[in-house]
Amino acid sequence: MNQNLRARLALLLDGLRQGRETSLEALPKLDRHLPDARDRALARAMLYACLRGIERYERWLHDLLERPLPNAAAPVESVLLLALASLDQGIDGAHAVVSASVDAIRGLEQPGLAGLGNAVLRRAQRELAQLRALPPRTDAERYNHPTWLIERLRRDWGADQAAAILQANNEPAPLWLRVNRQRANVSDYRAKLAEQGLDAALAPGLPDALCLADSLDVLQLPGFPDGLVSVQDGAAQLAVVLLDLQPGQRVLDACAAPGGKLSHILEQGIPLAQVQACDVSAARLSRMQENLQRMQFTATIDWLQADAGSAKAFAPGTQFERILLDAPCTGTGVIRRHPDIRLLRKPGQVQALKQTQARLLDRLFALLAPGGRLVYATCSVLQEENAGQVAAFLERQADAWLRPVDADWFGRDTGFGRQNLPGEQGLDGFFYAVLKRRAS
C-alpha cells in the first residue's frame, strides 16, 4: 500500500475515532481509490486489526511518546496506531510499514512530525516483545471494549459469558452467503465455489445459506454482480424463515435499509398481495432500489419514505398479515463484523434506542391484522433492547401474545424470544421474538 492510500486510511480511522462517520459509510469512499482487490483487502486487514486492538495500541502509543501529539495532529496519531497494529499482527513487512507510514505523515502535510513518527515506529520494532508483554491496566485494555459496555455485558450475562462475548467480538467473522433461490440452489452454488477452491459449509435451519470460514472480496464470488448470491450473516437470514410467508399476504418491512431482508423476502418467490418497504431515509431507499435492480428483481414494491413509528406514516385502516421490524439498536451483536461500533456507541444512546424500539413496536402492532405475525429483530446482545423490550411490550398490549421461535438450534430461550451470542453457531449476535395478534 503506497503512502497516499495509507494516509487516506489514517483519515478514515481518525473519522471513526472522532465519531464523524461509520465504517459502513467510510469504506466505500476509500474503495473508490483502491481499484486493486489486494489493496482493498490490505486496507481492511489493517483497519480491522487496529480497531480490534484499539485500547491496547493507544496505550502502546502513549508509552512510546514522550508527550502527547497536539490535537491538530490527530490523523498522524491514526497513522501510528495503524502501523502499530500492522507490526503487532505481521501485516506487511516491518520495514515497509515504517517507511510507508513516515511517507504517509508527510502526505498529511505534517513533515515536521515525520522524524518523530520514524523514531516511534523503529522503537516499537525493537521493543515489540516488551510491548506485547505489558499487562493490561484496565478491563478496557484487556478486552479492547469500552468500560461501560463491559459492565453492561457482565450485568446481563455474568462474568464468564461476558468474557466469551468480548473474545468473540475480537475475532474476524466468517463470510456468510445467501443464494438467490429464484436463480440457483444451494447445492449447485456450493459446487461452483468448490470449483474455485472455496469450501462452503451448509447451515441446517437456513435453507439459502452457505458459510465460508475466510472472507474474500465479494467480486470474486461467481454471479455476485448479477445477484446470484448476496452477503448476509446467517443470523439475519433467519428473519424471513420466521416470517413464515404465505401466498396472498400483505407484508411490511418497516425499517428496510439496507435491504438484505427485503431482497430475501422477494427471493422466496411467494405470490404476495403487497410488499411495502419503509425507511426514514430517502437516500437509503434509493440505494435499495438500485440494489434490487442489480439483482434483477421484477416484483412491485410499495416504497414509503417515513418514520414507521409515526402515527402519520400509514393511511388509516392499513393492515398487514406479516410485519418485519428489524429495529434500530446498538449493534452490539455485530462488533466482530463492524469493530468500529465499540468506538461509536455511547452509554447514553441505549435509552434513546429503547424508546425508539418501544414506539415502533406499539405503532406497528396496531397495523397487524388479527392472526397476523410481527417479527421483532435486533443485532444487539443487551437484554434491555431484547427480552426486556418484549416483556414490557406484552404488558402494554393485551391482545398480543408471544409465539415460540421455531429454531431451537438458534442461541437460547430468554423467555421472551431467542438470543444468539456472537460466534455461537458461527453467527452474529442476534435476537428474535415472534409476536402475534389474537384473532377476534
Order of helices and strands: HHHHHHHHHHEHEEEHEHEHEEHHEHEEEE
| Number of continuous helical runs | 17
Q: pLDDT average, as an integer?
A: 94
**How much helicity do the residues have?**
40-55%
| Overall geometry | globular
Largest sheet: 9 strands, mixed
The computed structural class is: alpha/beta
DSSP strand (E) fraction? 5-15%
Q: Poorly predicted ranges (pLDDT <50, ≥5 residues)?
A: none
How many beta-strand elements? 13
Radius of gyration: 23 Å
Distance between the termini: 64 Å
Describe the protein's architecture and organization.
This protein is α/β, with parallel strands linked by helices and 440 residues long. 46% of the residues lie in helices and 15% in strands. The chain has 17 helices and 13 strands. It has helices spanning 3-17, 23-31, 37-52, 54-64, 74-89, 94-107, 114-126, 128-133, 139-143, 147-169, 186-195, 234-243, 260-267, 282-294, 341-344, 347-365, 387-396; strands at residues 175-179, 200-202, 209-212, 229-231, 250-253, 274-279, 302-305, 320-326, 368-378, 400-403, 412-413, 418-420, 430-437. Strands 5, 6, 7, 8, 9, 10, 11, 12 and 13 form a nine-stranded mixed β-sheet that branches. Strand 5, helix 13 and strand 6 form a beta-alpha-beta unit. Helix 1 crosses helix 5 (74-89). The radius of gyration is 23 Å and the shape is globular.
Topology, element by element:
Layout: H1 3-17, H2 23-31, H3 37-52, H4 54-64, H5 74-89, H6 94-107, H7 114-126, H8 128-133, H9 139-143, H10 147-169, E1 175-179, H11 186-195, E2 200-202, E3 209-212, E4 229-231, H12 234-243, E5 250-253, H13 260-267, E6 274-279, H14 282-294, E7 302-305, E8 320-326, H15 341-344, H16 347-365, E9 368-378, H17 387-396, E10 400-403, E11 412-413, E12 418-420, E13 430-437
Parallel strand pairs: 5-6, 5-8, 6-7, 8-9
Antiparallel strand pairs: 1-3, 1-4, 2-3, 9-13, 10-13, 11-12, 12-13
Helix pairs in contact: 1-2, 1-5, 1-6, 3-5, 4-5, 5-6, 5-7, 6-7, 12-13
